[in-house]
Amino acid sequence: MQLTDILPEDWRDATLLGRIQTAEGPTPVLLHAGRALNISAFAPTSAEALSRAELATATGPDLGAIEDLSVASVWEDGDLKLLSPLDLQCVKASGVTFAVSALERVIEERARGEASVAAGIRERLSERIGGDMAKVKPGSEQAAELKAALIADGLWSQYLEVAIGPDAEIFTKAPCLSSVGWGAHVGVRGDSHWNNPEPEVVIVVDPSGKPVGAALGNDVNLRDIEGRSALLLGKAKDNNAAASVGPFIRLFDQTFSMDDVRDATVSLEVKGPEGFVLAGASSMRLISRDPEDLARQASGKNHQYPDGFALYLGTMFAPIQDRDTPGGGFTHKVGDRVKVSSPRLGVLENEVTTCDIAPPWTMGVMALIKNLAGRGLLGAA
């Protein structure tokens, strides 16, 4: 796979920050003006790089012309092994930010994690509130009126509270250093029997709380586990190899801004080993909360991130296409190839396995500090 095949369509104009695995260890790289540069002497971590105003003009050893490089994956060899572009940033996520995903969370809750009864619940809820939900501004007077009506009908849910109430759902998706990048395995728990990918835009925020770039993400979701109880969100969301981000962080500049994020369409394709194909798309124009509002709700005077953070913005795409049995809906199989793409952000592709079989997460903060110290890079920060 050529590197250019997974980059934004206008990659020649973009400034892209990523991380690769070298013989020495995890290494930040900058793709700019047609070249790939090792910027580890400028900043040994991507978190440090994103905190520095001069990142776009950083220099370092030249790794070659972008057009000449290939990328390695779990399914083929290549020049560069991409890691998640995140390292010390905390990985956060926002939930039920689209009307469709809000309804699906309510369905999970009412189905108690049983996929076989979801279709009937989905039909009833869609008839009652589907049209109204998409038009309601969270926290508005109209939202309060809809809430009162749903309570009266016995249809209110904690998921609807964060969908149309004043406060967004913001949760920790993964610890720093645990996310995976393009070409890696993504994991679903072996004890989950109803799960799906969640194609999303991920915005990256610097230590001051300012969004500085965006990437693609797959917020792997275990619908049966969360459906049993919302208190199992951590077990459903934070697992080995369950957070994929990449392929690179596209920096905000004159060629790419938050308005491009607001206008993005994120596409999903799943190809199964048995020939099953699932495709869909999620339009950021339909998000119910603005990305900058979500970033503000995630941080501020009550919660700081000295190394910055990344925030999954949510998805409107919850696959319901039957895979094995009528009414059974969709769930992953080992060997699924999942491709998340958007023209201005590139392609994020991973292969599904179970969390216990995916390579274990071993490079934690202590290991990274020791590695960087041994390479003489800490003095450069």
UniProtKB/TrEMBL annotation:
Superkingdom of origin organism: Bacteria
InterPro entries linked: FAH (IPR051121), Fumarylacetoacetase_C_sf (IPR036663)
UniProt key word Transmembrane: no
Key word Protein biosynthesis present: no
Keyword entries, A-Z: Hydrolase, Metal-binding
GO molecular-function term, one example from the UniProt record: hydrolase activity
Entry similarity comment: Belongs to the FAH family.
Entry protein name: Fumarylacetoacetate hydrolase family protein
